[in-house]
Amino acid sequence: MLKRSLVILVVIIAIPAFAKNGDTPEQIIRQKHVKLMEKIKSIEATTLKSWIENKKKFILLDVREPNELNTFKITAENRMEISRGVVDFRFHQMVPDKEALVVVACSHGWRSAAVTDLLSEYGYKNIYNLKDGIFAWINAGYRVANFYGTFELKDFKSTL
Question: What is the average pLDDT value for the chain, to the nearest integer?
Answer without folding.
Answer: 87
